[in-house]
Amino acid sequence: MDIDALRSFLAFAETGSFTRAAKQICRTQSAFSAQMKKLEEETGAGLFEKNGRNLILSEAGLQLSAQAKQLITLHDNTLNQLKQNQGKRSLRLGCPEDYNDIVLPIIVAIIKDADPRCSIHIYSETSMTLRKWLDTDKIDAAILTRQPNTEEGYWLTSDRGVWIAAPDYQLSQNSPIPLALFQTDCKYHAAAIDGLTKKGISFQLLACCNTASAQRALVKNGLAIGAMGKLSIGNELSIIENMPSLPNVDIVLSVSAKVHPLLNSCFLQNLEANFKKKMPMGSQPNQVN
After folding, report:
1. Could you give the domains of the chain?
2. What is the percentage of the chain residues whose pLDDT exceeds 70?
3. What pTM, to 2 d.p., does this model score?
4. What is the largest CA-CA distance in the chain?
5. Span of the secretion signal (predicted)?
């Protein structure tokens, strides 16, 4: 059924007059009458009946009147939603896997607050890969570990490197320490190797992992100890004290040169404050001496 014809029909239902209904919809009375005749042909039912000198809605007309209001409301709401989404594009967000548990949900929550209708596509890759994707406009923004001595991105928070082990793990004084580390481009990898070497602590690099989950799994099962940012260790691992120091890092949100409409100056200026508000006060991990 034609939606304009339904609007015209409701105009009659509300006014009870062909003349007044035609005026409300800005049509001639003859045009309005032709529209109603066509609507009756489409429905296969007489929508009007005479009541003395006047026309009133028939039983079929009364039924259609109730349904027509719902159809028009659904039609108008659908059009409004389509118009609101017209020209909108999804936001492509990159995030290293080790930031998925704590940092990523906060960023997604901030984006959702800014635009509840925004669709986000998330890619988990290393910071090195995500920088390349930003440069080639493959993604719109990325959560990154800031490169040393740069002002890269918009600052979110800092993280400190810690040594991690299973809660019941016992360090041996008589054999090399087994290590499970991230890839060689990770700051904690180089710092861990360098720190143990300078302290004269014997070690064996058991595994070099390309995901934080793989590294945590090896450590959790007591196969090795590891080094990673405190925000990434989860609740099942413990921090080892009295080990060589590991560096602090800055975590930032970097955006593509072709700025996504949502990531405007207002959003970015308030990003640090909004991130701080949503940052959970996590419980402190146990310590292994």
Report:
1. 3-85 (1.10.10.10), 91-151+254-278 (3.40.190.10), 159-249 (3.40.190.10)
2. 95
3. 0.68
4. 110
5. none
